[in-house]
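Re: that chain you flagged

S.,

Sorry for the slow reply, it's been a week of failed gels. I finally had a moment to sit down with the sequence you sent. For the record, here it is as I used it:
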Amino acid sequence: MRRLGCIVGFGALLVSGFQLVCLAEHYFDSAGVKIHYVIQGDGEAVVLLHGWAVDHTMWGKNRWGDNLILTTLARDFRVIALDCRGHGKSDKPHDPAAYGPPMAEDVVRLLDHLQVRTAHVVGYSMGAVLAGYLVAHHPDRVRSVVFGGGAPVLKWDKSHLQKSEDFLKKWQEDKGLQALSRLLLGEQDREALALANRSLHQITVTADALRKYRGPVLFLYGSQEWDSTKHYVAEARKVFGRGEVVVIPGADHFTAPSRPEFRNALVKFLLAQKQ
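Prediction finished late last night. Pasting the structure tokens below so you have them in one place:
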């Protein structure tokens, strides 16, 4: 597991075997791409954006821990968790142009589809990058934002991108690594996942765009998070000029979401933003 995760950067959250219960499952058409999503609870909308190579079920119970984030939030909010394109039950285009910013625009179209004007947005890893795009390009749609295990990216670190590319090439060619991937992640569309990962470098934001967002911000990650993530968080905080930070002691990129401290900090922050 660490072999996969240490080099993929923002892209990975290698967890599987998820189950969530009492969820209403739906699909909608996002500019020709079918997107799968689930809804639970009532109240102000909260959108959950998962990490790379998993799906909406990362917010629930899994074989490595009880995240229970979705069901906990659903006590007080209308929680909307989607499978990003290329993941889960959503369509998996093999066109590079279908990824990058279009992944974030799916969220806006979903809100429009549900007739939701504004939502609290929670993103983890890849989802945090997408959340950064949303606050920069659609600040009027985001009531508050939580960046988990990631942050808006002003400029991608070149060494980070190279390590990610090296991993993807090996992942697509190495039979042993493919077998480990299937064990951890199940049968997935590797081509679609590779395109989604490679497209992340297209999702950058400018400082001026970030400053347009005036809502509450929380950065939430483990003390053993990657240095690259901590760098992106520090740069984003400078631009925002604000933002709560909660660091989960002893947690890394993979274990943080399953820690009760992570869930508690997330719920506390969102409850404080309710109107």
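What I noticed first: The mean pLDDT is 86.

Talk soon,
D.
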